[in-house]
Amino acid sequence: MEKTEGRAEGRKANQLRKYACTRNPLGRAHGSARWEQGDTVVVAAVYGPRPGTRKGENPEKASIEVVWKPMTGQSGRQEKEYEMTLKRTLQSICLLTVHPNTTTSVVLQVMSDDGSLLPCAINASCAALAFAGIPLKHLAVAIGCGVLENGDVILDTSKAEEKQLKSFAHLVFPNSSKSVDLKESQQKDGQSERGLITSITHGVMSEEDYFNCIERGLAASSRISDFLRTTLQKHTPDYL
Amino acid sequence: MMDQRWRPTVNEREFIEHALQSDLRVDGRRPFDFRKLKIAFGREDGSAEVELGETRVMGYVTAQLVQPYKDRPNEGTLAIFTEFSPMADPAFEPGRPGEAAIELRRVIDRGLRESRAVDMESLCVVAGKHVWSVRVDLHILDNGGNLIDAANITALAALCTFRRPECTVGGDDGQQVTVHDPEVRDPLPLAIHHLPIAVTFAYFGDGNIMVLDPTYKEEAVMGGRMTATINSNGDVCSIQKAGGEGVMSSVIMQCLRIASVKAADITSKIKTNVDEYTTAKALQKVKRTPVLVAKKNDVPDVTMESNDGALESQTSKTPNDAQDISKGDDDHRIKRISPLTRDRTVKPKQISMFLGGPSNWDPYSKGVSLSSLKKSLSCRLKACYIALFRSWYSYKLNISRTIKDPPAIPNVKRHEDAKSRLSESNPEVESTSNSGIAGESDEAKESVSPKSLKDAVKPKHKRKKKQHGKS
Question: Do B302 and A227 touch (CB under 8 A)?
Fold first, then answer.
């Protein structure tokens, strides 16, 4: 696959794959979401809040438990790393003091993997938490960025691209803010709100490249967060 | 953690049992009706998702070369792994599998492996040294009851669509095995002799009331359960009745008779779905060069491809495209799709999208230049496009083709969409292709169109409408 001429299927550097979100595909789970980014599909299910926390967790706050199920094989170290990353990311977006001494479990199942798996999973679990009604501070929007040899940044890397790239990063941002109350001043939506929640990089990249990634990722995340917003708004029940 | 198993209340239990005495089930089914079955396939070979009512299971098949067992040196191995994912039921804990998970695995294992449904000897590469070991991973996503049946169907569907890489034995000592890349040589399907279908019965009362395909509420209330694995030939592959209410042997025989009827029904469903999928996949393999598909040049900084939105917004080139596309996205994708499988009616459209290029089928977006079209007309690789194009014209010229005509008609609709946007060069194109039709079109059409047009065929009810409209 040529890197300079174009990506597979003629995608441009800044073009994301087509994505879709299905609300509550599962019947038993309290909230669930199926997030598709191109051919990468992840289903996330949320159960909770359940009473009691595990040993070692702070009982004054709610705790989040993440289980990651790969497509095949036993759960190994890679899965443990994903679980840890997800747990920390989701902990930062949930309002943990609303239900102290409870556990919310998020279970993820990889349905198919074509690159950008972790961002897809984070998007899916955030959507599932929202569909389950877990109180959140804001949404988390994740994007995968890759750095080409000539320093160009490509978004939403596929599996083939990730294999060939020297380095790529998975970035998570809070969603773009839109104030509900028009009278609210703009000061509150400052730069600090759009800081990076999580960043996992693979490979070596220069500082410049990394900041480029962040910039591009930020722009892309506002698109995805608009999409999330419309998805959530569409299915708001009538009594709200 | 606490035991989160769903326990029925006394009222629910009595309601279910009472209703069953009048042959009524809580979800409105008759006692021997299966729930709605939907089978969908993933992008990769060997991945399948099955929905049986509320129960959802995903299966994934992989294979690798290993050393065979010492006592069976020329047979491959088949292993089933089931994961009761905590997402399926709050009662499922991650970690070690419970009794139910192990029972499920054993029943499916016995049904598939011991009945020799999959041919093991064809998996042998070098006797005693290298054989293929096939591994089936079944993930329970949603526990709506009757996991055994659903998981069994998933395993069968996944095995039917699985393709293992082709390998050749060579080298100096005839022992070296080279596994060919799927891109280089087409991977091979497994040799499956028959499809053993598991059918589960639940017993209530004194063992005289039985129902087929229990939901999880019925399972919580039932007195006992029996699973019979039967294939469409009527061969009983396995029977599992572990404890529970005692049942008379006449009742068991009746159940087996019912099971064999149901098994035939489900077998045909699986086969239809698998065939649809394999033909669609074969079509995708016909490669296209990007020349015919004109890609838009100016796109805003960050864009998303939408599925159906691309068709509509193809001609507009303003920077507001992204907005339009995202709207298209919304309309087509974010609607509440409760089944995990994609809409059947959307499927043909989606597949036809892939034919042309990344996201759209329409090759006439920018008005393809005459020269490139002429080049393509003479090129065999693009025979499919030509076949479709010609079929439209042949229909127009009323060339009677008995078999090909019905499939040709739905294409008219799509062609008309394309036609409305055709630029001036196309009237010329029409004439060239018409003249070209006479000679070579026949073979090109005969050989290629059955596959391509079949794929483009819209669902039956739409096809009929078209016929009435056009004829």
Answer: no
Neighbour order of strands in the sheet with A63-69: A19-23, A31-37, A40-51, A102-112, A63-69
The predicted-structure confidence for A179-198, as pLDDT tens digits, reads as follows 555 544 444 444 445 688 99
pLDDT of residue A127: 94
Query: What are the CA-CA distances from residue A215 to residues A157, A171, A194, A195, A219 (Å)?
Result: 16, 11, 11, 11, 6
Nearest chain B residue (CA) to A232: B334
Question: What region does B15 belong to: left with phi over 0, alpha with psi -120 to 50, or beta?
Answer: alpha
pLDDT tens per residue across span B24-33: 898 888 899 9
Report the gap between the CA of A26 and the closest CA in chain B (Å): 6
What is the average pLDDT across A132-154?
89
**CA-based nearest residue to A104, from A29, A175, A35, A198:** A29
Return d(Cα B30, Cα B209) in angstroms, integer: 12
Q: Where is B15: in which H helix or E strand? A: helix B10-21
- Please tell me which of the candidates A14, A28, A71 has its beta carbon nearest to residue B302: A14
Element (H, E) at B102: helix B99-109
Instruction: Mark yes or no for CB contact A14/B83 under 8 Å.
Output: no
Question: Please, where are the H alpha helices in B181-303?
Answer: 216-221, 249-285
Nearest of B356, B345, B347 to residue B463 by alpha carbon: B345
CA distance B262 to B395: 43
Window 114-133 of A, Cβ < 8 Å to B: 114
For residue B95, list chain A residues with Cβ-Cβ distance below 8 A: none
- Which residues of A fall within a CB distance of 8 Å from B338? 24-25
Confidence of residue A64 (pLDDT cuts 50, 70, 90): very high
User: Which residue is associated with the tokens 């080409």?
Assistant: A148
- With CB atoms and an 8 Å threshold, state whether A112 touches B54: no
Digit-coded pLDDT (tens) for B243-277: 888 888 999 999 999 999 999 999 999 999 999 99
Q: Which helix (H) or strand (E) holds B329?
A: helix B321-333
Query: What does the pLDDT read at residue B309?
Result: 35
What is the mean pLDDT, run by run of 10 residues, along chain B of 471 residues? 72 91 89 93 90 94 91 91 87 82 92 90 88 93 93 95 87 75 84 93 86 92 92 90 87 92 94 93 73 44 41 36 40 42 41 43 50 55 55 54 43 43 42 41 42 54 45 38
Residue in B with minimal Cα distance to A236: B336
User: Which amino acid, residue B317?
Assistant: K
With a CB-CB cutoff of 8 Å, which residues 55-74 of chain A face chain B? Answer: 67, 69, 71-73
Compare CB distances from B357 to A10, A21, A22 and report the shortest one's residue: A10
What does the block give as tokens for B61? 């098949």
CA–CA separation, B458 vs B461, rounded Å? 8
Q: Considering only CB atoms, which chain A residues are within 8 Å of B304?
A: 15-19, 223, 227
Q: Which one of A2, A57, A111 makes the best mutation probe of the B interface by having the most chain B beta carbons within 10 Å? A: A111
Nearest residue of A to residue B303, measured between CA atoms: A15
Q: Are A234 and B334 an interchain contact pair (Cβ–Cβ within 8 Å)?
A: yes
CB atoms within 10 A of CB B7: 9
A19 and B42 within 8 Å at the Cβ level: the answer is no
Which tens digits make up the pLDDT trace of B31-83? Answer: 999 999 999 998 888 899 999 999 999 999 999 999 998 898 889 999 999 88
How much is the ipTM here? 0.85
**Residue A23: its chain B contacts at CB < 8 A?**
334, 336
